[in-house]
Write a structure and sequence with these properties.
Two copies of one chain form a homodimer. Chain A contains twelve helices and eight strands. Chain A has 322 residues and is α/β, with parallel strands linked by helices. Chain A folds into two domains: 178 residues, Rossmann fold, CATH 3.40.50.720; 85 residues, no CATH class. In chain A, helix 9 packs across helix 10 and helix 9 packs across helix 12. Chains A and B meet through helix 2, strand 7, helix 6, strand 8 and helix 7 of A and helix 2, strand 7, helix 6, strand 8 and helix 7 of B.
Chain lengths: 322, 322
């Protein structure tokens, strides 16, 4: 067992390993939250790209009132790994999604980073158990999976590997939360975690549709953008369907649309809708409703859709059918 | 071939067949757009439920400036089908999702509705070819698939069956568009159309996760709500991934994340990422970008996420990790 050496209030400088879209986005966010950032990236244009990314991100962070105590210029780029992690209180690894590369990189990081420092990985789907296979101190390695852009999307999925210390998982969840993130702490290593499993199912179905000439890219995007995608920022997919059941909620919805789980509406086979699964989903919707009735949730959803449509200029102006 | 008897400017009264969540939502929308509505629903509490639904929907429609010329009380409920469709210029069928029931109901509608009137069906996934199996005039039956709530979500998927007249499909697409809807006109009958194929893949993956204890209902909802769901109202899933590739766009994204299509990130197998599929997706993103560079789209996405987070009160306030 390992207790991280720094309190979350005392992290100070953070190392960002890799400064692509994700690593650079993390750097912008850490800067906004008042940290100094040391970036390691071997690409010759890393510094120029990162400067552009931070410049593009800053106005949005300002609009979210995120910049108290922030110094936009408090970052440096390093090509030597040991130099990049020297003196830092946390490391966020965002290297390309290649298991062999990640394994080697985490082992190198392990060798040069002070032993009490926690290392979070931005991996989109590998488990820490397989990524930390070559490190000496697996206890301080944890997945902290963000979403693009990491400076604006709140979600971070936190999950340890078999060798990760539970205290490190706790510490990472608290650290990201204190940074202003919406943390989902998972107890199990599931490939793709939660959100990527869900959006990957949608993405693969979309690729099949393009592959078979069933829909164009533009139709797929518009079907989500002008359709279900307008509902999900308020309630997510489960509570959204809770409302599709009318006053009977999810129980009515499952009884009414349960048979469609057998329909060829996607290439993905559905699980059997057993009484246990039905019960879990209905009970879960009760928990997620947090005391709001279906009527309350409908009013909340409608207000949200109206506001988003007005916001995006997508009110009643008719579009030309395609 | 059949030419619909009414111009879209001359539809007048509309019949809503079924007044549940979807049929009642259509009724509210048709009323808002200045039509009179005749509702057929055999349930004894249909009138009371519909009154509540219209009352709940009206403020949102008002906020969207949809109510010019609308008479909120211009509706009546009928238990006799012939009476409900008498004198109407369009019929929207929103009966329960049961193929046997739909087949019988469409045949009854066909018998009592004036022959030149178009009948649209709200079916979530049946093809019109199978639903219209027992009608005498299949040429005037067309799918017009809305999303809940039909009075706020713009998307309507329009697709005919084998017997549907192309003029009727055109007419329906123009009619819904003139009503202020975002119409996707499909050339092929695909079970579940487009948006339901996509959201059904996500929903089935979510059910599997609950079934296997991999995630709770609350985690699933939050993973979308605080994660990818904040991006989709702006750009849909394809253009969203176009931006994940950084300045290299979708081409870079596919080359970088292509191998993850082989990963067990969902139970859904991906199609082979052939050069043809890669080309179609990259070219489709160019079309969908409508001249906007990746930098333009990133700025648009960021502004949208910031505005939605502020709108929903989900700015920096940290949440307790779960």
């Amino acid at each position: 067992m390992m207790a991280p050496g720094r309190s979350i209030d005392d992290v100070g400088t953070i190392a960002c390993i890799g400064a692509g879209t994700i690593g650079g986005g993390w750097a912008a966010y850490f800067l906004a939250r008042g940290h100094r950032v040391k970036v390691w990236d071997p690409a010759p244009d890393a510094e120029a790209r990162l400067a552009r990314l931070i410049e593009a991100a800053w106005p949005a962070l300002e609009q979210l009132d995120m910049l108290e105590g922030a110094d936009r210029d408090a970052w440096s780029v390093h090509t030597d790994l040991a130099e990049a992690v020297d003196g830092v209180g946390f490391v966020q690894e965002s290297a390309p999604e290649d298991l062999t590369l990640k394994r080697r990189l985490l082992a190198e990081l392990d060798a040069v980073t002070a032993p009490e420092v926690v290392v979070g990985s931005s991996t989109s789907g590998y488990g820490m158990t397989e990524m930390a296979a070559e490190v000496s101190r697996p206890e301080r390695f944890v997945v902290g999976h963000p979403f693009n852009p990491p400076y604006l999307i709140p979600l971070v999925e936190v999950v340890g590997g078999e060798g990760t210390s539970p205290e490190v998982v706790d510490w990472a969840a608290q650290f990201y939360t204190a940074l202003g993130k919406s943390v989902i702490r998972m107890d199990r290593e599931v490939p793709g975690f939660i959100a990527n499993r869900l959006q990957e199912a949608l993405w693969r179905e979309a690729l099949h549709m393009v592959d078979n000439g069933e829909a164009t890219v533009e139709q797929i995007d518009r079907s989500i953008r002008d359709g279900p995608g307008l509902r999900w920022p308020m309630h997510g997919p489960m509570l959204t369907f809770h409302l599709a059941g009318g006053e009977g909620g999810m129980a009515h919805m499952l009884d009414h649309f349960g048979p469609s789980l057998k329909s060829p509406w996607t290439r993905l086979q559905a699980p059997e809708l057993t009484p246990e699964l039905r019960g879990d989903v209905v009970a879960g919707c009760e928990v997620a409703s947090e005391g709001r009735s279906v009527t309350d949730l409908v009013a909340e959803r409608d207000a949200g859709i109206v506001a988003i449509r007005r916001l995006l200029g997508r009110d009643e102006s008719p579009e030309v059918p395609s």
